[in-house]
Amino acid sequence: MKWFRSLKTTMNLWTVFSVIFVLLVLLPNLSIIVQFFAEPNENWLHIREYMLQNYIQNTLILVFFVGILTLFIGTSLAWIISAYDFPMRRFFQWGMILPLAIPPYIGAYTYHGILNYTGVIQTSLRNQFDVTVNQQYFNIMNMPGAIFILTIFLFPYVYTITKAFLARQSTALVENARILGSSSWRIYFRVVLPISRAAIIAGVSLVILEVLNDYGVVSYYGIQTFTTAIFQTWFGMGDLQSAVKLSGTLMVIVLGILVVERIARGRRQFSFTTTKVKLLQPVKLEGRKKWYAFSFCMFIFSIGFIIPVIQLIYWATMTYEQLFSHDFWQLIWNSVSVAFTASTIIVIMAVVISNFARLNRGMLAKTFPKITILGYSIPGAVIAVGVVTLFTALDRQLFGFYEWLGLEPTLLISTSLFMLVFAYVIRYLAVGYNSIESGFDRIGTNFTEASRMLGMSVTKSFFKVDMKLIRGAIFGGFILAFIDIMKELPLTLILRPFNFDTLATKAYQYAVDEMIQQAAIPSIFIILVSGIAIYVFHHVLEKE
Amino acid sequence: MFVHIRNLAFKYPNSKDNTINDFNLTIDQGEIISILGESGSGKSTILRLIAGLEMPTNGNIMVGDHCMCSNSTFTQPEKRGVGMVFQDYALFPHMTVEDNIKFGLQKWSRKDKKNRVGEVLELVNLEDYRKRYPFELSGGQQQRIALARALAPKPKLLLFDEPFSNLDADLQIRIREELRRIIKSTGVTSIFVTHDQDDSQALADRIVVLREGEVAQVGTAQEILGTDCNFADRMPVKPRVLSRV
């Protein structure tokens, strides 16, 4: 009886839709898990015997080196910028996030364009100084090159999380260490790194997940990893079944990383349990030291942002007439319309699930948020495999229905834009969810409870009170998801309908076809949109 | 009896023990009851159970002729006709004082709404603050607006969660006198929870002393707190000064 009373009380539209949305997120992953255990075919036996070891090895080398390098670059920048005052520090505070506006695949072909035989460096050396260099020193299309590219465009993940932690949470400890006479190096290694462990691990984990998700850099540089293997098996060999098995193996690696992250972070949280936030006061650097700090920041900022952007602008001046073509505007329309649709769905789903989770107790309310953010950990290529297997199965089920309707195609949903939007939603739901959840966290449940005590239902309370109080977070979640989708490559490459291109796929396609100058305009457009969003978020909102 | 609470029990999902154990209480119409207890004694939980913001594991709550909850039924908070003044007032920051008060009057006609807002603002002596936003009010004014907002829909029962905890000592003394006057003038049955014996003594007709989720004592202020200041020897709860240290 009590069970029935409980069910009746918690059962409302929010619960029903939350369950449906979470099931939608789970289905593609489940379809991979189910097929992972299916009988293997010959291809898979061949892959497992001769190639899998190479994929694992390359993937782990990338993950390891990019992880270590982003850790040191990200934390050292976070420490210098939080603890010291030097020329342009205020700009670097948010400027250091800008490399994130450049998707690594754009950075990859830009640097290749800068360094190759016909690039600006070698051409200048030949023409101005009559120096011909050994090509091997300028070849970036290899493993160290990929590590460099992924490091320089992904370190802001570690930088932002560690800096936020240091600026707000470390004040007492750092000030104590200063009073006790520790040098800045000593404070960095003995205080900063240990106390920021949880934040650093969180940042590095994000970097690793991005490395595992990457397809553009590794395929352009010709490095065999899991994502390239999934593509090749699927499109080269036409073997979806083996692609599913590779995806399943990659999922196991991702889960392993998430478990290691949990263990490494231990019981440490991102923040101490204090509401008294005291900001770390930066110490003014004098003399040479201030120029060392400035040079280090400027060097990283140059290779992470200025150099590739200048190169792209230069190329754009050669190809700007593209701007006036119908095709280019079609690309913008394609990118914006799918990103807009998917982000809108993401925000609606995120609001429903997070509102359900915060207003209820019990298993479902605890588990749903974890499932919701699952997609962001899973590489795009894996989600693509899951979504395709799911939608093809769905099409097969609906075959009779299509016939009854008199429709010609046998694969209707699995060749439509709907599938791409669905995959975007699963992959980036976490981005919208985290923003909206933090908005709900800030306002707490008191306003909702007050509204209910004044006679409003949960839904009316949401529209009249909660939604108005968290509209900044809703907007933030929408923008973040929108930008991520604009930049997205592997999912779009796999799932786009025939003849459907976005700015990202077109830029990548031009680069692969060695029409690198043509790739500049769509690339700049992506960087511009992302850069403006970063500016708004970390500059204007921080001021507020 | 106007409010009848019988065998009420409650347990938070992550806790091993019951937060509330076999709680029984009857309240007459128009009576002001204070639930007095130290922090963690479960006093706010009782209020939330009566409001419908938590679901009890056992027990019944009747208000007037209506069963608010039993082992087979549960009335949602918005359908209980119970008002509540929150500890931090929870005034909607994006609405003016007038809109905050009108919020609970959604089914009233426009004219009735306007009249009612005037009435309750007059009751709390803040007629001129109609167009202000909550952040433009002092702590004491916010509390009075929260009271006006809770009173506006004419609730059968009014609940107060630590109503004075955000006010400084001088204001606290002035406001609780005024609060008693207002409550008595409306005749609404009220329950407020506090950890402060002085609040209980000044406001309540009867005091319920709560300890570890169970009723330790029920009686008038005179019966429980006595009249002299030497509470420490006789009291089941520590006096205010000690409990705050």
UniProtKB/TrEMBL annotation, chain A:
The chain crosses the membrane at residues 12-38, 58-79, 91-111, 146-166, 187-209, 243-260, 291-316, 336-359, 371-391, 411-430, 469-486, 519-541. It comes from the Bacteria. Residues 56-259, 332-537 form the ABC transmembrane type-1 domain. One of its GO terms (cellular component) is plasma membrane. It is found in: Cell inner membrane; Cell membrane. The keyword Ribonucleoprotein does not apply. The keyword Transmembrane helix applies. Its main location: membrane. Keywords: Cell inner membrane, Cell membrane, Membrane, Transmembrane, Transmembrane helix, Transport. GO terms for biological process: transmembrane transport. InterPro entries: MetI-like (IPR000515), MetI-like_sf (IPR035906). It is a multi-pass membrane protein. Belongs to the binding-protein-dependent transport system permease family. This is Iron ABC transporter permease. It comes from Alkalibacillus haloalkaliphilus. The lineage of its organism: Bacteria, Bacillati, Bacillota, Bacilli, Bacillales. The gene is fbpB.
From TrEMBL, chain B:
GO terms for molecular function: ABC-type ferric iron transporter activity; ABC-type quaternary ammonium compound transporting activity; ATP binding; ATP hydrolysis activity. It is an enzyme of class 7 (translocase). Its EC number is 7.6.2.9. It comes from the Bacteria. GO terms for cellular component: membrane. InterPro entries: AAA+_ATPase, ABC_SmlMolc_Importer, ABC_transporter-like_ATP-bd, ABC_transporter-like_CS, ABC_transpr_FbpC, P-loop_NTPase. SMART domains: AAA. Keywords: ATP-binding, Cell membrane, Ion transport, Iron, Iron transport, Membrane, Nucleotide-binding, Transport. Residues 3-237 form the ABC transporter domain. It catalyses: a quaternary ammonium(out) + ATP + H2O = a quaternary ammonium(in) + ADP + phosphate + H(+). The complex is composed of two ATP-binding proteins (OpuCA), two transmembrane proteins (OpuCB and OpuCD) and a solute-binding protein (OpuCC). This is Carnitine transport ATP-binding protein OpuCA. It comes from Alkalibacillus haloalkaliphilus.
